[in-house]
Design a protein that fits this description.
heterodimer, A: mainly alpha, 6 helices, globular, B: mainly alpha, 3 helices, elongated
Chain lengths: 162, 100
């Protein structure tokens, strides 16, 4: 069951990612980005990272994507008009898409590392135990980072001359 | 059992799609979305490697990457909105100089 699901999730995720970068309308890009996040969460579940799958859906699809949609609706952007495509640009696009993963992937094909079967699953309890003991300092620093980001956003969105 | 290199291959594919989006699109919103694709690709590689190595350190890393990505998107979109208020555009071609 894991094999077909892996192929289904990865191919669907890559297809949705392609739509994200190709679509004319930014709302279309945002919706397919949400699909990418959901398929990624499915891949996390296949990798036994259950806590991260939930966090992925909550934070990425539930907060970051909603923020994107707010901004798209706030700015009320028109559909992007089709610009003339330079052949060099399309060629660069195609080459990047095809050669980079194939080239790097072929280097890795001979080394077939199998995931450890005795690994502890990434349940909330296991991740939490690690997060609050070994990685306590980065946890607290991350909260400071979020505070700094919040202050920055508030300052950036103040109206002029106030 | 899916071998680790297949997960890395998928991660590399997603990463290159993200890079193509950042380089080739002119709408700043789509560029920011492609940045999220890049970050997700590296998250996938980290989680797959965590499973291959048998410990959860990779998943802790992903936890912090998601946090940083959220902060970065918030600040990036705030910059975008402030820029839009000034110039009424989100096309990157119109903000190529540092003049406002």
């Amino acid at each position: 069951m894991e094999g077909p699901l892996f192929y289904l999730f990865s191919i669907a995720m890559l297809a949705c990612a392609l739509v994200v970068i190709i679509a004319r309308n930014p709302v279309t890009s945002a919706i397919f980005l949400a699909l990418v996040f959901f398929f990624m969460a499915g891949l996390f579940v296949l990798l036994h990272a259950f806590f991260l799958a939930a966090v992925q859906v909550l934070v990425y699809a539930g907060a970051i994507l909603v923020l994107f949609l707010f901004v798209i609706m706030l700015l009320n952007l028109p559909r992007e008009e089709g610009r003339h495509r330079s052949p060099a640009g399309v060629l660069a696009f195609g080459l990047t898409l095809v050669l980079l993963p194939l080239g790097l992937g072929s280097l890795a094909i001979h080394e077939g590392a199998v995931p450890a079967s005795m690994a502890e699953p990434g349940t909330t309890e296991n991740v939490g135990r690690l997060l609050f003991s070994k990685y306590m300092l980065p946890f607290e620093v991350a909260s400071l980072l979020l505070l700094a980001a919040m202050i920055g956003v508030i300052l950036l969105s103040k109206k002029e001359g106030k | 059992m899916i071998p680790l290199n297949l997960y890395i291959l998928v991660s590399t594919g997603l990463f290159s799609i993200g890079i193509a989006g950042v380089v080739l699109r002119r709408n700043t919103l789509v560029v920011l979305m492609s940045l999220e694709l890049i970050l997700n690709a590296s998250n996938l590689a980290l989680v797959a490697a965590a499973r291959a190595w048998g410990n959860l350190d990779g998943q802790i890393f992903v936890f912090f990457t998601i946090t940083v990505a959220a902060a970065e998107v918030a600040v990036g979109l705030a910059i975008l909105v402030a820029l839009f208020r000034r110039k009424q555009t989100v096309q990157m071609d119109d903000v190529t100089t540092l003049k406002l």
